[in-house]
Each structure stands twice: as structure tokens, then as C-alpha cells.
Amino acid sequence: MPHPTPLARPRNPYLRLFATPGARAFTLGNLVARLPMGMFGVSAVIMIAGARGSYALAGAVTATGLAATALVAPWTARLVDRYGQARTAVPTTAIAVCGSLALLLCVRLDAPDWTLFAAYAATATTPNTGGMSRARWAHLHGGPSAADAAALHTANSFEQAADELCFMLGPVAAAFLCSALFPEAGTLVGAVLLMTGVLIFAAQHATEPPATPRAPAAKSPVRARGFAPLLAVFLATGAVFGSLEVVTIAYADALGHRAAAGAVLALQAAGSCVAGLLYGSARPARDTARRLVGCLAAMTALMWLPLLAARAIGSLFALGGALLLAGAATAPTMVTGMTLVQRRTPQGQLNEGMTLAVTAILGGIAAGSALGGQVIEHAGPETGYVVPLCAAATALLLGAAGRGRYGAPARR
Which of these, 171, 101, 82, 91, lies nearest to 126 by C-alpha position? Predict the structure, then answer.
């Protein structure tokens, strides 16, 4: 396993991290490829609803894409582990880009509704760009030394902050492109950025982890000790995200400020982004499993703030401040959880393991959105904030119950 060439070591951990040869190049490509992940859903909804006049159809199409991604993504990640990032990511991204362009043409040419579902489902082959980037950091800094552990902790924190930033800027960029240019602009620009970013990323061969041909008897990472309890935590955490989004949109709509919902949700992502960067500057935990439980406890405590702001104050401004603070525990939770996923995943299956974690989050987002919508319909948007609070509490209970399994030494 290669290690960074000794260089002058700046005190700032992020400057030290990006002094690693080749790190800046693959990070640039990955960020370009990752930004569209926050653009495609919003772009598709605006494009389809504007052309067909149905938000129900737009929502159903994007939900189908989400479900298809949850099914296909682990298999794509398995191919990445087996054949390498460059050999797999480029063709699978090309298929996904063709799906996005097909969706654009189907909407533009007024094709039958079923073609929209088929085209958007084809985008499920998009590789987990964030997971591939984390796999490169693990390849570069996966050694047993304290310096490697600190560098990997900083890298995981940076990647989580980058996720938050892309999902904060992506919807804003998509909405601007679709409104300022033409309805299909968000999807078109997103497809171009995705393909360009993956090509830049894949071209950085010096930092690419080696392919690991899988033996016929190799087991799924899910069967590794402690992995399933971690997936349960990610599933419940995803429900926090999904319910928080739909409840906030409904709450802003009830106050007559639906257009401001995106900005309010961006505050939650901003809080998480800043917290992630600060967390990366701290020392990695000696007991990572215990740290995860502590992060989940903090997330549960902070999820009281949006509920109190909505029910006791009833101000969108107050809600924005509450979400900004509530987001402070999100990134540390995700960084710590992903660190444990890396440790529990068998060697040669790192992309598959991290993609399974992302798939669990996507499943949780879908479940949280559905449950949040039901509570809103029957009890009102103010009460809807009980759902992310309960989801966070569930994640805490699952994390505490599973700590003995995922906190034990990994079997390699």
C-alpha cells in the first residue's frame, strides 16, 4: 500500500492531507462529478412537472429512479472493486448519462409517460463517486500508524462536508438553470458535469486502488461481523433526512413561504458542512464505536430544536436557526459511521461496503419521506417534526444496541 512521500508538514490537517501526491487532481474530478447528484432530482421534477403539469408524475418518476439506484448501486460497486474504478466508472457513467439525456428527449418530444420511468431508471448505474473517493483515501492512508489514522479521519470529514456542500448547491444550481435558461437545462448541465468529472477522476491512475478479483466463495459485506447493525443505523439516519425535508417544505408552505423552503433546508446542510470540517480537525476517537453513539445522542438532542421552533415559536426564521444548529451533529455522525463501515468491510470490497451504507441511507430517506407525509396529512406540519426526532432516537437505540458487535476487532 503506497504512502505519501514525506513533505513539509503544515499544521492545518487539510493542507497536510492535500499535500498527498495526486490528491488534488482526483478530488477536483470527484467534486465536479458529485455536484450533479444534488441537481438531477430537482431538475427532473421541474422539467417533468412543467411539461406534463403533474407533480405526482414527477415524484413517481424520481421515486422510481431512487428505488432502481438502491437495487443497482451495490452491484455497480462490486464491479468497481473487481475490475477497478476507471474500467467500471466510465462505462457505467456513460449509461447513466444516456438515461438522463433520454429522459430529457422524452419530455421534450412528449413521449408516453412510461418512457420517463424507463429513462430515469437507467440512471441507476451512476457509480458512487463519494465512495470511490473515500476508497482512494483509504488506499493512500490505510496504514496502522497514528498519522494514517489521523489523515483518514480528516479525509472522511472532508468527504462528508463535500457531500453536504454538493447537496446544498446542487438544488440551487438546478432551479436557477431550469428557470433562467430552459426547463431541460438542469438535466443537460448535470449530465455534462457528471461525465466530465468521472473522466477527470478516472484519469488519475496513480491514486487508484488496485482491482481485487473476487473469489467465487466471497461473501457479501453484509455478512461481516457488525456490518448489519451499522446498516440499521444508517437506515434510521436516512429517515431523519427524508422526513426533515418533506416536513420543512410542508411547514414553509403552511406559512405561505414555500419558495423559502430550499433556503431553510440549505441552512441545515450548511451547519452540517461546517461541523464536518471542524470535526476533521479534531483527533480521531480511540473508541470509534463509542464516539458514534455519542454523535447519535447529540443528533437526537438537537432534533428537539426544529420541533420546538415550529410548535412554540411558529417562525420560519426561528426554524432556520434551529435547523442550522441541528445540522451540527449530522456530519460527525456520518463521518464516524463511515469510518466504522471501512473497518468492518472485508478487504477488496470497500466500494461495495460503502455503497451498501449509502443504499441504506437512501432507503431511510424514502421511508422517512413517506412517514413524514402521513403525519403531516393527519396531524399538521408542526407535529411532523416529531418524525425526524423519533428517527434519530431510533438510530441512537440501534447504535447503542449494536455497539458490542461493530466495536469489536474486525475479522479480515
Answer: 91
